[in-house]
Write a structure and sequence with these properties.
Blueprint lengths: L14 E7 L2 E7 L5 E6 L4 E8 L12 E3 L7 H6 L6 E3 L10 E4 L2 E4 L21 E7 L3 E11 L11 E10 L2 E10 L5 E2 L3 E3 L1 E2 L11 E3 L2 E5 L14 E3 L12 E2 L6 E7 L7 E7 L4 E7 L3 E5 L12 E6 L12 H4 E2 L4 E11 L5
Antiparallel strand pairs: 1-2, 2-3, 3-4, 4-5, 6-14, 7-8, 9-10, 10-11, 11-12, 12-26, 13-25, 15-24, 16-19, 16-21, 17-18, 17-20, 20-23, 21-22, 22-26, 23-24
């Protein structure tokens, strides 16, 4: 495979190197001029770190001039614990499935068989699945990694008797990171399926996120009950005109807002993709989280076990929470045998180049 292996790439191209986080295999992509560096764990195809140069292009002098933009798992123990689902790729469902149960294809399914009491399940199986590198290419302006998992099969994932091949494609440039999740139904029956991403972003360390400014081009809020499950039918849809405290259509400071909420009816830009913008007025730094379609879920990290409110989760997702139990999502979820679906999203870093 072109570019794969330790030191993959040439002096004037991105470099691709395999490594380890404890016993967990990783792969690191580095720009030839040091302007960018990203490290992924093959477990879950999980982004562990994304660093980009703070200054203007060509001004980087050493690795200390890069800034860490994500708040990912720091060691093998955190990766295995999955606490906070840091940069987890979410499939075959994002967020929660109420009571761990759903009905599909004329059958009832239980994602937590035998569990009584706490039946919380969320964010699917892909985030812990083994992936392997099937293609890695390096060019002067970016690198591309294609990772694949064939672990979602009948009998392996309780309550999900369907067969999916998952491909995750990362494109890593000097200022942008793009991701495409593709699922192909390799089984004989129609499968319910949706995907998403659960990254945490940081622009203000060591300061908390309170002074950061957020803009979300969404017109509707998804209302939920105390368990964060959307209310039935149209009761779940609240125009943001009626919820000024969570209306971020105009950029506003986060302050002490506690958010674990899904935003809907996203307005795409001229290029067809929606951008949620996080900025730091103190530095001029800006992150633009983009996606093609779907919803944006925002979580301010108030319940994290480590570094509460040190970062914010801006999550592009194809569907709302508990979509497996919502008739209005049934058609969008259905992935027929032999068919493939793709969800594309990513993030761009911009900086005010100060003299």
């Amino acid at each position: 495979m072109k570019g794969r292996g330790d030191g993959g790439g040439t002096a004037d191209t991105f470099r691709i190197a395999e490594g380890r986080l404890g016993d967990e295999p990783t792969v690191t992509v580095s720009a030839p001029d040091g302007q960018a560096r990203a490290t992924l764990a093959l477990r879950g195809a999980t982004l562990l770190s994304w660093q980009v140069a703070r200054g203007a292009p060509g001004q980087l002098t050493d690795s200390t001039d890069r800034t860490e933009l994500t708040d990912g798992y720091r060691d093998e123990t955190e990766l295995l614990s999955q606490d906070g689902v840091r940069a987890g790729l979410l499939a075959p469902f994002p967020n929660r499935v109420a009571d761990g149960r759903y009905h599909h294809g004329g059958h009832d399914h239980d994602l937590l068989p035998g569990i009584v009491g706490d039946r919380l399940i969320y964010h699917g199986f892909a985030r812990e699945a083994p992936f392997r590198i099937v293609e890695a290419t390096a060019a002067a302006d970016s690198a591309r990694l294609l990772l694949r998992s064939t672990s979602i099969r009948p009998g392996r994932c309780p309550g999900y008797p369907f067969a999916l091949d998952l491909d995750v494609e990362y494109t890593i440039g000097r200022r942008e990171l793009g991701i495409a999740i593709r699922a192909r139904n390799v089984g004989g029956t129609t499968a319910p399926y949706a995907s998403g991403w659960h990254p945490y972003f940081t622009l203000s360390r060591p300061r908390p996120i309170d002074d950061l400014v957020l803009q979300i081009p969404a017109d509707t809020l998804i209302r939920t009950d105390a368990s964060l499950i959307p209310l039935p039918g149209k009761e779940a849809l609240l125009p943001l005109d009626r919820c000024p405290d969570l209306d971020f259509r105009t950029p506003r400071r986060l302050g002490d807002a506690v958010i674990d909420t899904c935003f809907a009816d996203l307005a795409p830009g001229p290029d067809g993709r929606t951008e949620t913008v996080l900025s730091d007025p103190a530095t001029g730094a800006e992150l633009r989280v983009w996606q093609h379609g779907g919803y944006m879920h925002v979580f301010t990290g108030d319940t994290l076990a480590r570094d509460r409110r040190a970062s914010i989760a801006l999550e592009p997702v194809e569907t709302t929470t508990d979509a497996f139990n919502r008739p209005e999502h049934a058609t969008a979820l259905s992935l027929e045998p032999g068919r493939q679906r793709e969800f594309r999203f990513g993030v761009t870093y911009l900086h005010a180049y100060l003299p």
